[in-house]
Amino acid sequence: MFNWLTQWFTTRRKTLRPIAPHLQRVAVHNSYHMNPPIDTTSPQVYEQSPWVYIAINRIAEAGALVPLHVSKRVSEQTISIDNHPLEQLLDMPNPVTSRFELFEQTLGSLELTGNAYWFLAGNSLGQPSEIWVLRPDRVTVVPDPTNVVRGYLYAIDGEYVPLDAVEVVHFKRWHPSNDYYGLSPIASAQTAILSDKHMANWNRNTFGQDNGVPAGIVNIKDFISDTDFERIKREWRNNYGGTGRKTAFLRGGAVEWKNIGLSHTDLDFLQGRKAQRDEILNIFGIPVGLVSENATEANAKVAERIFIERTLYPKLVRIAQKITQELLPFYGDNLVAQFEDIRPTDTQARLDEIRTAYPLLSINELRAQYYQLPPVTWGGYPVGTTPSEPESTTADVDATKAIQEELAQWERFALNRLNQPQNRPFEVSVIPDEVAFEVSAGLLFAGDKDAVKAVFASVQDVVVEF
């Protein structure tokens, strides 16, 4: 075996190949698919399973609310572009579709079938002018031995409409056993979905028409004629065959009723449906705390954070990177599409980070990194230090005195309200913005009276500059 394999590697390659050698075989292997190999019953599951409907709607509607921005990479920086043409196009993708509907259908298709397709119609400049969402169950990928994808076929009533590869943006989830199509979560949740559906149908049939009679056997011990047998069946059904539950009263000892049915309690019906619900929601990445009737406020907040961080945001990143790869090249190079980062931030962790950076960074660095504020002329110095000051004039002395008086008022204000919740902010009137910023930043970490006094003492030298 070893000798047979070595003939395939007679020479060691020292450079990379320009073309992947397996693409042609992959294209030939998948070329026989004339229709998409996806589960065409997924839309029915969405329509009939309440938990699938809830899971997909939570993802699709939440994702459709998140804004998408276009930026340009310049060296190692990313510069935001306001009102980019792609953003304008997404706001009105086509005459009958809104931005919300575009992303709702895209995210919904990805969850239902593992695939979503955009058809791009262009203007005279060769740029997209309209975006249309295609139904995944109608789209077939046409493989290509060189370019991976030659194009797409869109099937309607037995007719196939050819679409070029450049006209279609294919969003897909990862599929471990398919080269061209994505895998839907419904495929993994199929057993749980069917079990939940059968339990719901059993419950409906149990309380449906002509099912009010308790499950059991009516045993007639004595031999009777066919006429009497039919009469007894008819009377039993007339009296106990409705939707209401009734107790059967029989006269005589010749007829015996035996219960052979299982009640909802015996089957642990409610717990069974909850177990199916939890499994379905977990497969879709929906924390149970978002829908559970017993969830506390704390549990609901944790569930919402997990949903945003681990479920919704990665799905938005998948879509944004595909838009960057296949849509933004129509508008130029080095453009990046990014959804707004909606992941919750830990306020306490942020304050601890600022506290650590406080003695190490300059004022301008703190302003830029943590507050997204522009630099100031005096901000190149570490917090609490200032450059050498020129001699003050009479007007400067008066201004400095007013600033010092207001700082003293602010210090008394801060001391009186130390460690009190929901403090109203001090209203600054003559104190310069940069001094007020430094005081506010220092008060964030002042836990006692000595610390508060130290904050105001540290800015006394800065006041002289003004």
In brief:
This protein has 466 residues and is of the alpha+beta class.
Overall description:
This protein is α+β, with helices and mostly antiparallel strands. The chain folds into 3 domains: 23-209 and 270-344, no CATH class; 216-260; 347-463, no CATH class. The protein has 18 helices and 11 strands. It has helices at 2-6, 23-30, 42-48, 50-64, 85-91, 99-113, 185-188, 190-206, 226-240, 264-267, 269-284, 297-326, 347-357, 363-370, 394-416, 433-443, 449-458, 460-463, and strands spanning 68-74, 77-81, 115-122, 128-134, 139-144, 148-156, 159-164, 168-172, 216-220, 255-259, 335-339. The strands form 4 sheets. The protein has a 3-stranded antiparallel beta sheet. A hairpin with a 5-residue loop joins β3 (115-122) and β4. α8 packs antiparallel against α11 (269-284). The chain is extended, with a radius of gyration of 35 Å.
Mean pLDDT: 80
Number of helices: 18
Lateral arrangement of strands in the main beta sheet: 2-1-11
How many domains is the backbone divided into? Answer: 3
- Major sheet size, sense and barrel closure: 3 strands, antiparallel
**What is the percent of helical residues?**
40-55%
Count the E strands: 11
Beta strand %: 5-15%
Q: Give the N-to-C terminal Cα separation.
A: 86 Å
Shape: extended
* Low-pLDDT segments: 249-253
Order of helices and strands: HHHHEEHHEEEEEEHHEHEHHHEHHHHHH
Compute the CA-based radius of gyration. 35 Å
SSE map:
Blueprint (H helix, E strand, L loop, with lengths): L1 H5 L16 H8 L11 H7 L1 H15 L3 E7 L2 E5 L3 H7 L7 H15 L1 E8 L5 E7 L4 E6 L3 E9 L2 E6 L3 E5 L12 H4 L1 H17 L9 E5 L5 H15 L14 E5 L4 H4 L1 H16 L12 H30 L8 E5 L7 H11 L5 H8 L23 H23 L16 H11 L5 H10 L1 H4 L3
Antiparallel strand pairs: 1-2, 1-11, 3-4, 3-8, 5-6, 6-7, 9-10
